[in-house]
Amino acid sequence: MLKTILLIGSGGFIGSVARFYLSKINLYIQFFSIPVGTLLVNVLGCFIVGFLTGIAEQRTVLTVEWRLFLMVGFCGGFTTFSTFANENLMLFHNGLSYSVLLYTGLSILLGFTAVYLGYNAGTAL
Questions:
Q1: pLDDT digits (tens, 9 = 90+) for 18-28
Q2: For the chain, N or C: smaller number of CB within 10 Å?
Q3: pTM
Q4: Per-residue model confidence as pLDDT tens digits over 78-91
């Protein structure tokens, strides 16, 4: 059990740090007041999860330990849907209802598309 916790925790640490640095894009890019860095992290995280799932279904390359480290730990720490929800709340509180709808729609559409593409890329290996 300790090994599992350490695998997930270390993956989560790396994913969280990566998310922190990629989310800084929010400071430099403005697009309809939506947090572009968080959108990028969510889409990229969805692609990575889809890719790893595709590989795991087609190959025995990913052991249970690697799945825990990468999928549960890294991707769990990297993707930011709790931040996503909070940012939507802040947009809503600031009267930017159009931005809430645009941000939510883009996150869902691009996230699903990225998971689909990642899965197909993973299964094609």
A1: 999 999 998 89
A2: N
A3: 0.80
A4: 997 888 998 999 99
HEC assignment per residue over 26-70:
HHCCCECCECHHHHHHHHHHHHHHHHHHHHHHHCCCCCHHHHHHH
Residues 19/41, Cβ–Cβ less than 8 Å:
yes
Place of tokens 């890329």: 121
CB 15 within 8 A of CB 77: yes
What is the 3-state secondary structure of 13-24? HHHHHHHHHHHH
- Dump pLDDT digits (tens) for 14-65: 999 999 999 999 889 888 989 999 999 999 999 999 999 999 888 788 899 9
* Residues across the chain: 125
